[in-house]
Amino acid sequence: MKVKEVADLVGISVRTLHHYDEIGLLVPEGTTEAGYRIYSGKNLELLQQILFFRELGFPLQTIKDIIYSPGFDRLAALRQHRLMLMEKRDRLDRLLVTVDKSIQHAKGESDMTNKEKFSGFDFSQNPYEKEARDRWGSEAVDAYAAKLKGMEQSGEMAGFQEEMNELYRTLAEMRHSDPASPEAQEGIARWYRLLNRVGSYTPEMFKGLGEMYVADERFTKNIDGFGEGLAAFMKDAMAEFANRQRK
């Protein structure tokens, strides 16, 4: 199957498949004489495995390390996926019960205790936190968390979030332009300054964050909500910004 056929079958973007190829996560079986990627049945099985891991929140590098390790057992991995997905389903079922009870409570049809209002929520694990710690270290992540907590306590968070959304909308308007243009670089410089209000991003870290915007479909989905292709545009603009800082 060609890359577009695989993308349509699976429901992911061609850009995602290209990225998987570039990082060695899913390399097509071959190419046609015209240079089109060709995916085999084994490629599709591997892609299914990758997407199971992604559904469970595993970062791409971890997936690559797992599936290409000498001791990788596909059947054992599938069984583990099933167990983990069942746990996820159970948590979602509990949240659905909470939503249904909340609807009834909002309509005045039933009472609801404070404990019931928060049944099913689990914030013991942050799906982004391990990736951030692996990439930038615990000290940077802890400092970032402390700044966010301080902003929440001082009431600054709502304004900060709206400022981020406004800048997303501004960047979305120019997403079809050259990421290296003066306008794009001015906008992405604002993004750099905004992020550094809650973190301590070096230009290299900033560039790495941009790469995550495309590599991680969770980021892509959220960012592209402001305009399709925004995540890829920001990635290129952030890389250009970081490269200029080295000169």
From TrEMBL:
<feature type="domain" description="HTH merR-type">
    <location>
        <begin position="1"/>
        <end position="69"/>
    </location>
</feature>
<dbReference type="GO" id="GO:0003700">
    <property type="term" value="F:DNA-binding transcription factor activity"/>
</dbReference>
<keyword id="KW-0238">DNA-binding</keyword>
<dbReference type="InterPro" id="IPR012925">
    <property type="entry name" value="TipAS_dom"/>
</dbReference>
<dbReference type="InterPro" id="IPR036244">
    <property type="entry name" value="TipA-like_antibiotic-bd"/>
</dbReference>
<dbReference type="GO" id="GO:0003677">
    <property type="term" value="F:DNA binding"/>
</dbReference>
<keyword id="KW-0804">Transcription</keyword>
<keyword id="KW-0010">Activator</keyword>
<keyword id="KW-0805">Transcription regulation</keyword>
<dbReference type="Pfam" id="PF13411">
    <property type="entry name" value="MerR_1"/>
</dbReference>
<dbReference type="InterPro" id="IPR000551">
    <property type="entry name" value="MerR-type_HTH_dom"/>
</dbReference>
<dbReference type="Pfam" id="PF07739">
    <property type="entry name" value="TipAS"/>
</dbReference>
<dbReference type="InterPro" id="IPR009061">
    <property type="entry name" value="DNA-bd_dom_put_sf"/>
</dbReference>
<dbReference type="InterPro" id="IPR047057">
    <property type="entry name" value="MerR_fam"/>
</dbReference>
<protein>
    <submittedName>
        <fullName>MerR family transcriptional regulator</fullName>
    </submittedName>
</protein>
